[in-house]
Amino acid sequence: xxxxxxxxxxxxxxxxxxxxxxxxxxxxxxxxxxxxxxxxxxxxxxxxxxxxxxxxxxxxxxxxxxxxxxxxxxxxxxxxxxxxxxxxxxxxxxxxxxxxxxxxxxxxxxxxxxxxxxxxxxxxxxxxxxxxxxxxxxxxxxxxxxxxxxxxxxxxxxxxxxxxxxxxxxxxxxxxxxxxxxxxxxxxxxxxxxxxxxxxxxxxxxxxxxxxxxxxxxxxxxxxxxxxxxxxxxxxxxxxxxxxxxxxxxxxxxxxxxxxxxxxxxxxxxxxxxxxxxxxxxxxxxxxxxxxxxxxxxxxxxxxxxxxxxxxxxxxxxxxxxxxxxxxxxxxxxxxxxxxxxxxxxxxxxxxxxxxxxxxxxxxxxxxxxxxxxxxxxxxxxxxxxxxxxxxxxxxxxxxxxxxxxxxxxxxxxxxxxxxxxxxxxxxxxxxxxxxxxxxxxxxxxxxxxxxxxxxxxxxxxxxxxxxxxxxxxxxxxxxxxxxxxxxxxxxxxxxxxxxxxxxxxxxxxxxxxxxxxxxxxxxxxxxxxxxxxxxxxxxxxxxxxxxxxxxxxxxxxxxxxxxxxxxxxxxxxxxxxxxxxxxxxxxxxxxxxxxxxxxxxxxxxxxxxxxxxxxxxxxxxxxxxxxxxxxxxxxxxxxxxxxxxxxxxxxxxxxxxxxxxxxxxxxxxxxxxxxxxx
Length: 679
Ligand code: AHR
Prior knowledge:
It is built from ten helices and 35 strands. The protein is α/β, with parallel strands linked by helices. It starts with a strand and ends with a strand.
């Protein structure tokens, strides 16, 4: 992580402050609740071209000719026929390239990629294809990466060829080096016009993928995930788990085994929003459950797969007959038990063997399973029961994550929590996409009784733990990744941190978005075919995840509403605190006290933080997020580092006879600052 170093004096900004000094106490002696290592994580769903066209590094769209329109994404010329008796039973279509009958009439096909194919000068790309020569003998296939928009003589950016021989299907590969960078290249494949050649699973990957894997992930995007230092990784959704209907739900068994034979599924984000329609958005499952588990291992996050509970999306399916009936649940429950075996089972078990055959004999050591995405009411509660019973009986150590539905409060939400308690779910997955007032806690309490950073202070400590599984501040009328909403997320997260005894994990949503293919925003990481940028929300998540500590420390201030001025309260944006939010943790591994303070006020704000039980002068390291002029500031592809965390230091002085350490600072208006002091 690169942080700009600022040289400006933090003290200077104190002169500009109009607020009275806010005094806070951090009890550094008494260790509070443990902070779960899973606390800050990531949630991946294939929305906004997050998988195909995004994290999954495949550059060819519709590589197996299985899209409903078999030639979506391909231009053709000459004699091209779609056939359907190919070597992969779940993806039977392929194309036949026959000589045109004229030496200058070339039979060619050309793929457009996902909004084009992004290539970089000097980089290598691995082309592969399954092919055969129909009448036997041999035939050459020519492969070109091209720039169709160029004014120069030659459209070719890079070329290669493969020699196909015999009537049997075989895999052929060649590596092509790009001569120039271009975000919108096409891939052209053509024959010598001498022999009829069949081709299937036409694929192109950058050689440099994350960890160098052939069926790999886009290097820059996967690295950005690793750089968050996430504790947990929830996948594969979201609504795609449920499907628009049961038939199109996400079925993990279709996503494992050889990539060539993983059947295509539609992606509900292709058509859900009529104002953002993407008719070429499908799921090839090249990035499937094996790859997800492998990614979790690489980025050191606990895997949290979510499976269908037998309910199609409840928003879109209101009839009981739209869902699996109780006596039809067995295959769904089997999928759940088999998944645990796939992840953790011995190599001589059916599904453990498949994992080993795919290259990972060691178990993935999965500890959590989510059952149902955003489900609610009786249809969910009754279906969940047999899943819980089956998992408990066979895998008592697996933690079960249930859900409280799509709302952050209300009748259905409350019912959900009651049911999850009754069924003894280990965690409850809560979702909240809410506006500024909700995150700040200033919203209407009748509508949002539990909004803001005090939300979890009142939760029952005896029931399941909380998983804030999908959340983001959606600015009212301003739904994009601007600075202001990210700041309010940081403010809200002080409440998550303070309540680490009940909140076990939290994941912002959604994670990824292609700038040309999004359906939903804000999102954490944006990209086009060759570039990416991290939103301010990314940096908020990263600042928390990299500084989560091991134990909560009590941080309080005097209640401004208490006439005697004795009552200590958390700093969570209450009246009289001038929009200040704060929390603190201790990190036993580094011996550091870490304090996070968010100033949501439009004025700078002086703070004095007493580090109780610490004496002597010290230097605190600081990390600050601040806008660069406007609350609507955002990072973009052309200005990706407009707002990044900036590191500096502040000197702590002492107070009283005992020379207790005190940290005085002036927080810039609308800023998030984190302090680290060695104890
Ligand atoms: O994150 C986008 C969608 O929001 C998810 O698919 C769903 O779970 C929620 O409604």
